[in-house]
């Protein structure tokens, strides 16, 4: 059992948090949870915010993982639907903002579940310098910390903004090793794209009053209908000049490996983010299901982690860290993984 926040020392009242709205996301979630909580032994719980769209079987899978806390939440939808979404599924991501309601915690790191932790990241919970360029822990609730959105658009997705080109990307002018310790921070003269974040990982101080104000703006701000990436575009506007840019390593977008060799080093990655096509949907690289995978190497990292977790002694372990039944594993996890041609 995860101790309630009140039982955790005040300097450790922190958690990871993610949103789950559909059972088909479970392969990503269970691999992420295994890498975060067990392989790399985070001392902090993972709060999974769930909506009524999630099945009872999926909830049972979540409940079977030690240090996962299931938190039912109400979805957030703007009164006026977005008309320029980069992809229709982004209509669900507004609910990620419910993380600001987790104010029983002093600090939360919002994460996406299509990730793979490769090194322990608990320092994000303890270091106040992740907020604001010079620390400012007394004003931490007014800031967030996150990484740049990569605006290179290497897949040439037509629904992405026209100014999403390599020359405008916040990662383009950076280099190794300074990108690890002194990532570029936006200034008044920076291109507008340097103020965009990828909301796959956001460090924040939750506050339910802030959430109520956010929802009010979501329902009244005319810019909302034009957002391509709803939650992250909104956060960039809401926090404006109060975003501390984190090194790329905490939210290592899989495309950075090939698009930004100027900064990418395999050994420095802490957390891979499998944006765009999901490895469990594509199938194992090099198989008939996925013969020409341009991201084969980085997708293979996910498949290696899945293969380890796929062992019955791992997903239903004797120590109780994972207690997923064979039926639930087969019908709620593997059923959403492209295995037949692997």
Short description:
InterPro entries: Glyco_trans_8, GNT1/Glycosyltrans_8, Nucleotide-diphossugar_trans. The chain is built from eleven helices and ten strands.
Number of strands: 10
**Strand arrangement in the largest pleated sheet:** 3-2-1-4-7-6-8
Instruction: List segments where confidence is low: pLDDT < 50 over at least 5 consecutive residues.
Output: 1-10
* Element-by-element helix/strand order: EHEHEEEHEHEHHEEHEHHHH
Strand content: 5-15%
- Estimated helix fraction: 10-25%
Mean of all residue-level pLDDT scores:
90
CATH class: Alpha Beta
Structure write-up:
With 342 residues, the protein is an alpha/beta fold. It has one domain: Alpha-Beta Complex (Spore Coat Polysaccharide Biosynthesis Protein SpsA, Chain A), CATH 3.90.550.10. The chain has eleven helices and ten strands. It has helices spanning 26-39, 56-63, 123-126, 178-181, 208-218, 230-239, 256-259, 279-282, 296-309, 312-315, 326-333; strands at residues 14-20, 46-50, 68-72, 107-111, 115-117, 144-148, 197-204, 243-245, 252-253, 271-273. The strands form two sheets. The chain has a seven-stranded mixed beta sheet, with helices on both faces. Strands 5-10-9 form a three-stranded mixed beta sheet. α1 links the parallel β1 and β2 (46-50). α1 (26-39) crosses α9. The longest helix has 14 residues, at 26-39. It is globular and about 55 Å long. The two termini are 36 Å apart. The model is unreliable at 1-10 (pLDDT under 50).
